[in-house]
Structures are given as C-alpha cells and as structure tokens.
Amino acid sequence: MKKTPLPELVGRIGQTAVAKALRVSSPAISKALRNERDIQVIEHDDGTFTAEEIRPFPSQHTAA
Fold this sequence. Notes:
The chain is of the alpha+beta class. The longest helix is centred in the middle third of the chain and has 9 residues, at 26-34. It has helices spanning 6-13, 15-22, 26-34, and strands at 2-5, 39-43, 49-53. It has one domain (2-53): 2-Layer Sandwich (CRO Repressor), CATH 3.30.240.10.
C-alpha cells in the first residue's frame, strides 16, 4: 500500500488515468486540484486505488 498526494499522482500518470482509477470524472479531479484539496491517493497491493481527504473537524464551509 502506497499513499501519494493527488497532484503528484496526476503529474506522474495523468488526470484521465487518475479519474479512471478512482471511478470519478476527469472534471472532478480537475476541481479537486484547482481547490487545492488535501487528497491522498492510496494504491493497494492488488492494483486498485482509493482516496482519502484530510480536512479540519468540524469542517467550516466558507463562501467564496
């Protein structure tokens, strides 16, 4: 199992490949990068990928 920050993985294998691996849309990856979300992608030993986000608790939604 290996954890990689989302921007680093996108830089290594590309946005489309990351989106496909996480079963989300490419625009979802783009938005996460644009908003600088702290997302770690986990590559499991069986070759599958999952992701987790680190954020403050309680989370405060701020208006733009």
